[in-house]
């Protein structure tokens, strides 16, 4: 060891010794919990203390730990061993992302240190054994640290990587939890399972007997959390009060614990899942000697209500540090909600919205009630009707319930509203007040007499389709103001288009597109219908389906190996393109080009007989009824050229097939796509043809292309939920219904070069010839079929070399 290394090793040794060697027993002293760890900085610290309590980790958290043992080992003290306790066990383990343990040393991933860092994780099981690596290096070490999850580290001295003992952080999947619903134990981030664990643990929790917890209500709440997606990822310090920790967990799913008849019952607030347990009316309200109802209503002043809420949550995007999420107005009176077990921004926002709207709806009713209200417990939902307060059928939640000596029941009831549980921030909940007077926030009734029709119109010389929607405003509702028009194409994702007070149009709709339209009534006070109550209509747009005008004729002019195709433009302004195909029929032809004018020039066309077909294509996706064709014959070989050699290929047992195969059609050899696994494209690569020496050639591929198959299916022509009329069934014959909307594509390429395999490429050899220089040549054929019921067949080809 060099002098520098020896000096650094000495510094390492002194640092390790100053950390207090083998302080394990003192650090494991237990204290009753006092608080939930609210600061992330404390969780991520590396401590060395005999007084540091072992935290409890539920779900997943990024934590540091307490170093309870530090010692040097090796002939030159080159190994530093550290025992770092993490949390109460048993825990699932170190979280992984992409199969990599999520640990950091001095801010860098542990994996970046290579062999300089070794570690061994222990879950904290009740029967875990002493770490074998520690025992081997330090025979006196005999503590298995049962019930405590920890990591045993071994750092190998490296002056380029360690200048001191690095801080270490772990992304930990915390305690495994007993699920009373299935009688199984596994890792979970369900907050109810964590609450059950904390309440029943005698080592770090409240120490309640499981028999004192009502399993049915806990199971119902656990299922609710799974349904809503409420999760808990929290670290609890063991120097806090049990009640603080319990309340912190309950806040993550709007829960509450009730004590009744010797058991704790778990409840959660969500009117979507609850119903009224009792209807309280005038007959239930006690009266004084003068006949006055013993009931009153209270609400704080506007200045006592918050304008906004700051939600504090743990943000994984900020290295599991605390982040602030504002909800509502960001000026005025602001309150804070701490959700230190929430690592999901959306969940934090939803709970923050609930707490803010609950604070704004801070209205209560107190009074004396008959003895038949003794059945009510805090958290119960009731329906209140009171003539004295002009309240009618208002949902309330019991806040307090006390039975007096005279048998009457004192109740404090808080206003409730479904709007509190819609996860949307709005002001409607604040104004909830059911009474006999007109309620400005009551949901307005829906529209009636809704109808939808299509209309074709012209704009800038083009034909388009629009929907015309007619409706009648709510009858007998003088507070109608307007409707909101919402549209969706899948009945799932909705978009607000505009507002309207009367019949309206949706212009430029797409043919064949599903349109779902909702009409939401809005009152003069801004009250709106709930989404589920909007008037919804469905319409499949038939639209402008008329076929465009067809070409009059297609002309072809041949000049040696050049073919010029041309036709007169049609007067139909809806024609978008003129499409050209090559083949024996339009539906079976292969695509050549789609142009704005009906003119196509092809240079270097290969010898043989070719049939070119052209058709008009409208902006509604329809082709002309009558494709036009022109046949040409090009001399083989072209004038001035002589065939020097011919290579023939029948695809059978030669070349490389990729989702293609040899087939026999009309007793001749052909190539087709295999359609393996539903893939509709395939590639064939011929053998490499060696001409023996480098030379310049005119080369062309002589072959034929045939299209076979059943064409399109009923599912292609009329996909669900379309109906017969959507394809204009009365205007089409059988052949038109099942004609191919798109023909197959066949691409032939020539590879050439002076080395094998050749790498230079010439495209469009399915119609063209090429003049190239090389010694080695190879043909590549690509087939792309429009459906599994259609096959483009490429006949066994001849590759001709001319000079």
Ends apart, CA distance between termini: 78 Å
* Average pLDDT metric: 86
Q: Major beta sheet, specifics?
A: 8 strands, antiparallel
Helix content: 10-25%
Tell how many strands the DSSP assignment holds: 52
Radius of gyration: 40 Å
C-alpha geometry: flat
Strand content: 35-45%
Helical stretch tally: 10
Structural class: mainly beta
Low-confidence stretches: 1-11, 13-40
Molecular structure report:
The protein is flat and about 120 Å long. Helices cover 11% and strands 42% of the residues. The longest helix is centred in the N-terminal third of the chain and has 16 residues. With 803 residues, the chain is mostly beta strands. The N terminus is likely disordered. Helix 5 packs antiparallel against helix 6 and helix 5 packs antiparallel against helix 7.
Brief overview:
By secondary structure, the chain is mostly beta strands.
Topology diagram in text:
Layout: H1 3-18, H2 24-27, H3 40-43, E1 46-47, E2 56-58, E3 60-63, E4 65-73, E5 79-88, E6 91-94, E7 96-97, E8 100-101, E9 103-105, E10 108-109, E11 117-122, H4 132-137, E12 148-156, E13 168-179, E14 184-187, H5 191-200, H6 215-228, E15 234-236, H7 242-250, E16 255-260, E17 263-268, E18 278-280, E19 295-298, E20 308-315, E21 321-328, E22 334-339, H8 345-360, E23 364-369, E24 381-386, E25 391-403, E26 409-415, E27 448-459, E28 462-472, E29 480-488, E30 494-500, E31 504-509, E32 514-523, E33 535-540, E34 555-559, E35 562-566, E36 575-582, E37 590-595, E38 599-603, E39 608-618, E40 628-634, E41 643-649, E42 656-658, E43 660-665, E44 668-673, E45 681-685, E46 689-702, E47 705-709, H9 714-717, H10 734-737, E48 745-753, E49 760-762, E50 770-784, E51 790-795, E52 797-802
Parallel strand pairs: 1-4, 18-24, 20-22
Antiparallel strand pairs: 2-15, 3-13, 4-5, 5-12, 6-13, 7-8, 9-10, 9-13, 11-12, 13-14, 16-17, 19-23, 20-21, 23-26, 24-25, 25-26, 27-28, 28-31, 29-30, 29-32, 32-33, 34-35, 35-38, 36-37, 36-39, 39-40, 41-52, 42-45, 43-44, 44-51, 45-50, 46-50, 46-52, 47-51, 48-49, 48-50
Helix pairs in contact: 5-6, 5-7
